[in-house]
Automatic annotation (TrEMBL):
Entry-linked HAMAP family: DNA_ligase_A
Annotated EC: 6.5.1.2
Domain of life: Bacteria
Occurrences of domain BRCT (ranges): 611-699
Family in the record: Belongs to the NAD-dependent DNA ligase family. LigA subfamily.
Reactions catalysed: NAD(+) + (deoxyribonucleotide)n-3'-hydroxyl + 5'-phospho-(deoxyribonucleotide)m = (deoxyribonucleotide)n+m + AMP + beta-nicotinamide D-nucleotide
Keyword DNA damage set for record: yes
NCBIfam families on file: dnlj, PRK07956.1
Alphabetized UniProt keyword annotations: DNA damage, DNA repair, DNA replication, Ligase, Magnesium, Manganese, Metal-binding, NAD, Zinc
Cited SMART domains: BRCT, LIGANc
Protein name (Swiss-Prot/TrEMBL): DNA ligase
High-level lineage: Bacteria, Bacillati, Actinomycetota, Actinomycetes, Kitasatosporales
Amino acid sequence: MTTNPAVVLVDAASYAAAVEEAAQAAAAYYATGESMLDDDAYDRLARGIAAYEEAHPQDTLDASPTGKVAGGAAVGDVPHTVPMLSLDNVFSAEQFATWTASVERRIGRPVAAWSVEPKLDGLAVAARYREGRLDQLITRGDGTAGEDVSHAIGTVLGLPERLSAPVTLEVRGEILMTDEQFEQANTVRTEHGGAPFANPRNGAAGTLRAKDRPYRVEMTFFAYAALALPDSGESAATLAELPHGEVLTYVAGLGVHTAADTAVAPRTVGTVEDVLTGVEDIASLRASLPFGIDGIVIKADLAADQRDAGSGTRAPRWAIAYKLPAVEKITRLLGVEWNVGRTGIIAPRAVLEPVEIDGSTVGYATLHNPADITRRDLRLGDQVMVYKAGDIIPRIEAPVAHLRTGDEKPIEFPETCPQCGSEIDTSEQRWRCTRGRNCRLVASISYAAGRDQLDIEGLGTTRVVQLVDAGLVADFADLFTLDRARLLALERMGETSTDNLLAAIDTARARPLSRVFCALGVRGTGRSMSRRIARHFATMDRIVAADVDALQQVDGIGKEKAAGVVTELVELAPLVAKLVAAGVNMTEPGATPPPEPGTAQEDDGEDGGPSADLPLGGMTVVVTGAMTGALEKLSRNQMNELIERAGGKSSSSVSKRTSLLVAGEKAGSKRTKAEDLGVRIAAPAEFAELVSAFLVPEV
Ligand SMILES: NC(=O)c1ccc[n+]([C@@H]2O[C@H](COP(=O)([O-])OP(=O)(O)OC[C@H]3O[C@@H](n4cnc5c(N)ncnc54)[C@H](O)[C@@H]3O)[C@@H](O)[C@H]2O)c1
Ligand SMILES: [Zn+2]
């Protein structure tokens, strides 16, 4: 397990700036939970500060967070009877072994037993019980004194107002929000016009201190220690002598909540090896827990071992936090995509500024449903807290509302199905395309009939929906065998429109292979890639027969894409067979197939391959502005097809590698750029002449 690198501070000025930033962040973090940094960013800053101080001890500033509980930021006026300390950290099994050795050296004997428990990600509080009644709730503060937050008594699950026995003692533990409580809290807050909490920890920090709110939100307490108070009486001796594990059992018996009833219950073990097994167990359960943990705490279990190890000013020497990598980062919400599933469910997905979390780069997060977006008050451009642990799909916890600039924009919801264009059924929380399971079919047929594919005039989405709903087509090959009489029976299909449609479909039967292949909708093969594939293989048979290696011969296809295409083509084989049977053209005019493997390769003496004799052989051509003359009627896609038929490569942007810019009227920035770069520029008429032999009327 590794940690992210520390911030590197190069001089006294950047050190001072870092100290100030850390102090501000910690103050915000402990007061309201509204820090501008995520924990990982804060920890990297704090480590950078500590490293600088180690190299330049004389420069150390008073405000430095190093060695202080709560980074020196928290305050309070209720003294603790025994300091409430922080914990030192280790990040690996090796560091842990080094630490145990140092404890054992200090106490002069092996540690008798270890307790292993979750490091709960909330905030520490001390709950003072007098004769079984909850009397006072105090925060950790700076470790020596904390704030009185007794107003929160009664709002925290697991911290009963009455114990099952009239004992006097102080229970210490963590107050947090479970995932469910967090969701609940943000719902209530946004309903009251408030800003959502960025994550459960901030929610707990903000809620614990808040008074006089018009609503109540619930939190949960987990005890992890108990100690005697001055008037504890005879239980004082018991508490002072019980091993840690038994203290937890004792407080649980009094009715206080501990982690014992969770999947990561505290355990007591004898060896370092068993500790590490426990660490792994807890770490592996992290993603599935209904509350957040940020590590595992390991403690010497026996009171005598703890006493002999003692404590420093910031942390005890008998306990350590085995930190787990940060699973939350702040990043920006760039956009929302709406994807349609197999059954027509329309699911929003957040597009994020890519951020590294726990070793992987996260660029997307789930958003459940539109109501969820509204409820969480997410806006485009928001800084958001993103959570990703283990194999779970990354999710947005909440916007970091205090980082808003005012430039955030509302998220727009689609008005029609983003896949097929039909109406959306918004009656349930999860929106659904009214075409349901047929949505994909409608979309794939509409795509196949589209302008850049088979270009079937008169076959728009509405008509496709009609054909699909009437059960006349189950894939786009069925278009070619439509029955005139059944078409006539449809609503709004008179003789003329029926015959026009059938004629348009018949014309489409003769489209070049590049378009027929494009119509299949294989992932990653849009217009220009389909043309490259069709020109390379010349016939559908060869495309279908191509293996991963053969496909990689096509410009722009890497191993991964090739494998994807091969797999999809296997699935599409029945559709292709149906198209062949329907008499659809399966060859690319003018393309020469690659030599069959095994046959002697003909050497034409040029490395440019077959395209070398063509007028645009080896050239990269960009088209801009309005085409005129012989080229006037050609769409941009058809222009690109023409360029490729004539042996060139079409591109959409001008660069140093552009060989020729075809610039029509109203050519703008591309022309200027070509002039700047000295790229050859041709007018449409000049270009038409150059490629006249390839200017065949489009079939
Ligand atoms: N984002 C920010 O701006 C910001 C600012 C300051 C601190 N922080 C974060 O706070 C952390 C440091 O805070 P810290 O000093 O509170 O220390 P800590 O969270 O690293 O560890 C000590 C605390 O762990 C808690 N704890 C949880 N489970 C426990 C258990 N089973 N037994 C004992 N203790 C347990 C206790 O509250 C204890 O005080 C860092 O992770 C840092 O990233 C963030
Ligand atoms: Zn749809």
